[in-house]
Amino acid sequence: MKPCWSPVWGALLLLGLLCPSSTAAQEGGATRTDAARTARNGVSRVASTSPCFEWQDSEQGRQRENKVIANLPEFARFWLTEDVVYLISPQERSTFLQMATDEERSQFIEQFWSRRAPDPTSLENSFKKAHYERIALADEKYGTQMPGWKTDRGRIYVTFGPPDSVESHRAGEKNDKAAEDGVETFPYPWEGWQYKHLEGIGENVEIGFVDQDGSGNYRLALSPEAKDASIITPPDNLVYSRSGKVTPESAQPFELCKGPAPTPLVQFKDLEAMVVSRIVRDQVRFSHRIEFAKATNATTLARILVYLSSEQLSSPSNDQNPSTGYEVFGRISKPSGWVVETFEHKISLDGRRNSAQHQPDCQFNVAIAAGTYQLAIVVKNIVTRETGTLHTEIEVPSHKEIDRKK
User: Fold this and answer.
1) What's the angle, vertex CA 71, arms to CA 66 and CA 76, rounded to 5?
2) By CB count within 10 A, which of 145, 221, 269, 405 is most buried?
3) Are residues 89 and 194 in the same domain?
4) Does a structural domain hold residue 1?
5) Is residue 243 situated within a structural domain?
6) CA separation for the pair 210, 388 (Å, rounded)
7) What is the pLDDT of residues 147-175, one digit of tens each?
8) Domain enclosing residue 206, as ranges
9) Is 211 in contact with 188 (CB distance < 8 Å)?
């Protein structure tokens, strides 16, 4: 059969993916830069405590940890064991399990994503957005009897993104490389993923998956060398920096900041003021649509699509100034007024008028818990400064509710 495991791959993939409960973080703990930033925002810092389970590698330690997890509130338990199971570091996991209140846990979750944001001052956390989009897509593509993100292919996809190329073979199909592999036909359905480059892991990495029982659940196809390798807990100091490189961070202990994460900067403050004041305008006509995709038991992926009206696109002001555009600002909040998500985008009309299909003019993907929320959207013509507003209530379905509708 076709080789499916590179030496450098085996050293890290076995560590990080076959031990999901303690997998290495894709982003490290708070760096010195993060510490300085939080200090500037007036947020105090406290070093994390030592691992909360002194016998982590023992049966007694595992039982104690499982008991603590079982006693967590539902949102916290699902977030820890599903949403970030492939991301969270052992230090972060230990700290989270020692949180005493829901407020502390919520602040921890905010900081968790803020530490991983490529630009913490931006409203859009591209790391978090990509993570949940991968979970939702993995569930759609690889789900069988279990959620797609839990399968071996799902784990790889969520962790590293889509492969650069995929090679698939049916059972009994002739192996073109029989001479070098020693196998003339594929005994089981087989799939090989090729990555040209994985930062910190290697070049031309290939991972093989095989469906031995015909269930459609492809499992990692390990080489004999990989099967004999010890599967151990990854070192606590193996992390991914924001640049994507694997770096030792043992000299920089994980730190937890007391209080909420630093607030990202809003660009369109005049539009934000309209949302806060609940001002109503209909000078700019637009419509919206929301699609929901299941991610985990704790989180639903909401895709908010915004469409400018054809009347708006062909307005005289746009014809007179072909370089005009629109600013879009949106906010999701709980009925209590607590802001959950804020997003903004600038729409350029260049080439938009001649579009054959009516595609959304902008899209916002929001990872959010099931429940009732208030959605506000403001759209402004940059040239005329005319605006349009939307204030509506949305009901975000749970994982089970989305399944029932299928």
Assistant:
1) 95
2) 221
3) yes
4) no
5) yes
6) 53
7) 999 999 999 999 999 999 999 988 888 87
8) 7-257
9) yes
Is 375 a member of any domain?
yes
370 lies in some domain: yes
Q: Region 337-360: what's the mean pLDDT? A: 79
**Pairing relation of β-strands 190-198 and 300-308?**
unpaired
Instruction: State the Cα–Cα distance between residues 367 and 226, nearest whole angstrom.
Output: 36
Domain end marker among 199, 226, 257: 257
In this predicted structure, the answer to whether residue 231 has a pLDDT above a threshold of 50 is: no
Reference 114, options 242, 333, 262; nearest CA is: 262
Which residue did the predictor score with more confidence, 215 or 53?
215
Say whether both 235 and 367 belong to one domain.
no
The tokens describing 334, both together, are: 């709980």
d(CA 201, CA 193): 15
User: Based on the number of CB atoms within 10 Å of its own CB, is 81 exposed (0-12), middle (13-18) or buried (19 or more)?
Assistant: middle
pLDDT, residue 244, reads 38
Which pairs with CB-CB distance under 8 Å and at least 24 residues apart come from 44-47? 44/257, 44/258, 44/259, 45/255, 45/256, 45/257, 45/258, 46/255, 46/256, 46/257, 46/258, 47/253, 47/254, 47/255, 47/256
Of 28 and 176, more confident? 176
Q: Are 239 and 246 in contact (CB under 8 A)?
A: yes
Separation between Cα atoms, residue 189 and residue 375, nearest integer Å: 46
Identify the pLDDT of residue 267. 94
User: Residue 204: pLDDT above 50?
Assistant: yes
On the CB side of 159, CA atoms within 13 Å amount to 26
Q: Is residue 319 very low, low, confident or very high in pLDDT (cuts 50, 70, 90)?
A: low
* pTM of the entire predicted model: 0.77
Which residues make Cβ contacts (< 8 Å) with residue 351, sequence separation at least 6? none
Measured between alpha carbons, how far is 28 from 91 in angstroms, rounded to an integer? 10
- State which amino acid sits at residue 251: A
Strand partners, 373: 394
- Find the mean pLDDT for residues 10-35: 38
Q: Both 248 and 277 in a single domain? A: no
Residues 6+ positions from 228 with CB-CB distance below 8 Å: none
What integer pLDDT is reported at residue 185 of this predicted model? Answer: 82
